[in-house]
Amino acid sequence: MKRRSFIETAAVASAGLLTTAKLRGMNSTSPTFLNLKGNINHSACYWCYGDIPLDTFLGDLSNLGVKAIDLVGPKDWPLLKKHNIHASMCWGAEINLTDGWCDTTFHNTLIKNYTDMIPKVAEAGYTNLICFSGSRRGMSDEVGLQNAVQGLSKILPIAEKHGVVIQMELLNSKVDHKDYMCDHTSWGTALCKALGSEHFKLLYDIYHMQIMEGDVIRTIEENHQYIGHYHTGGNPGRHEINETQELYYPAIMKAIVKTGFKGHVAQEFIPSWPDKIAALKEGVSICDV
Question: What's the mean pLDDT in 71-100?
Fold first, then answer.
C-alpha cells in the first residue's frame, strides 16, 4: 500500500553541519550508529523507503540507533520483533485516505475494521493506531465533525479498554490530498474536544500543516495536549529536512521537547539522495535536539 492510496549526518561540528556532499557519499549498507541525546523518540515511515526490503531496513534502523518504525501492519510485526524495533504507529484498519470517519457511508466498515484491529495492536504490545477523516465530498466542516464524532464514539470504548490511542492524521488539501477534511489543526482539535478521550489524539504532520497554515511552533505550543505523534518532511517537495527547504527543524523539535512530549517523531520525507539511509541519518540527526 502506497502512502497516498496505500534520512555521515548533519551532526553539529564546531563550525556547523557536515557538508551535503560528504553525506551523500556515505555507505548505506553500514550506517554509523548515532549517539542520540534521548530527548526525542525517533522513528521512520517505511513507505518512504519501500524499495528497501523491510528486513534490511529494520537492520539499518538498528544500526542507526533508531528504535521504532511507523506505518506497518500485523503481517510485518513478527519481523519487527526479530529486530527489536517498536511499531510507533500502526495501520491496517483504515480503508484509505479518502473514505474516512467524516462520512457516515463508511462507518460500518470502519467500525468493524477498528473493532478487529484494536485488540491486535494491544496484544502485540503497541499503542498507536492511525485513522483518517476522509474527503469532504461537499459537506461542511460542521457536518463532517458531527459525523466523525458519531462514528469514532463507537470505537473509543474499545480503544480505552485495550489502552490503544486512535490518532487522526492532519493532511494538506492544497497539494497532496485534495478535499481531505482534517486539513487544519483547528478542525482536529475541535474533534478531540468533542470526543473528550485521552485515547484519541492528532498525528501532527509538520510538512502538511506548513502548507496549510504555517505558524508551526505556535500551533504546537497552543495545541500540544491534543497531539500524540509527529511526522516530518521538507517543504516544498517533501524531501530532506535540511537547508534545502523552508522549515527549521531544530527549533521545531526544541519546541516539541519543551511541551513535555514523550511520544515519537517519525521521519516522513521522501529521500532524493541515491543513498536513502544517509538521508535518513541526516534527518534524525537534525531532529535530535
Answer: 98
